[in-house]
């Protein structure tokens, strides 16, 4: 009986270990594996895409804040990208959107093209409830913009913080929202190629093809906040 109990315990422990290792949101990861991409006080580690002259981002109250478009003001808009480039990684951060706001988090972004969205797949950040017009599922928060809809998600409303996680290893990508995996996909798969061919990305030959690139925070002209930006290279 003792041997049976010990054997059962070992099997259960092995199963639990396997589950943790395949769950990118597992809290069993060592804290030292994570690197901060934002110190909460300065723009260190970030710069405008292609070093453009922009004035739409600032650091305020421990956040990277994208200011809203202001009528009559000098609006120099543009995305922020990480100084570092990443291939296989897990990214986690918190975001908060304004009413009717729109933004996004892109990865493996290259500066070879004129726009970051020409290469980088996008984790959509949106005020799903109030964004003007009809928004298809593939364009709502947590989705892989225009290609894969987020499902089974719990989205916190305007003014509250949401946690995003993006897991990228080789061609495999997962989007997590507030602790739940909401979509996953395989870059360069036949399914991926077909979806791209039937989307707005069909005329962007570099879309989703870059193997190592920048993290990008999108300026869509709306107000959005990001904080606690951490990355773990795989």
Written account of the structure:
It is a single chain. Helices cover 12% and strands 33% of the residues. The protein has 234 residues and is mostly beta strands. The chain has a single domain, classed as Exo-inulinase, domain 1 (Jelly Rolls), CATH 2.60.120. Strands 1, 3, 4, 6, 9, 10, 11 and 13 form an eight-stranded antiparallel sheet that branches. A five-stranded antiparallel sheet has the order 2-5-12-7-8, with no helix packed on it. A hairpin with a 2-residue loop joins strand 10 and strand 11 (180-186). It starts with a helix and ends with a strand. Mean pLDDT is 90; it is low at 1-22.
The number of E-state strands comes to: 13
Number of helices: 2
Q: How many domains make up the 3D coordinates?
A: 1
The CATH superfamily appears as Exo-inulinase, domain 1
CATH level 1 name = Mainly Beta
Second-tier CATH architecture = Sandwich
Distance between the termini: 42 Å
> Averaging pLDDT over every residue, what do you get?
90
Determine the CATH topology: Jelly Rolls
Please report which band the strand proportion falls in: under 5%, 5-15%, 15-25%, 25-35%, 35-45% or over 45%.
25-35%
Secondary-structure element sequence? HEEEEEEEEEEEHEE
Q: What is the general shape?
A: globular
CA-atom Rg in angstroms: 19 Å
User: What ranges have pLDDT less than 50 throughout 5 or more consecutive residues?
Assistant: 1-22
Largest sheet, strands/sense/barrel: 8 strands, antiparallel
Strand-pairing-aware structural class: mainly beta
Helix fraction by DSSP (H/I, runs of at least 4): 10-25%
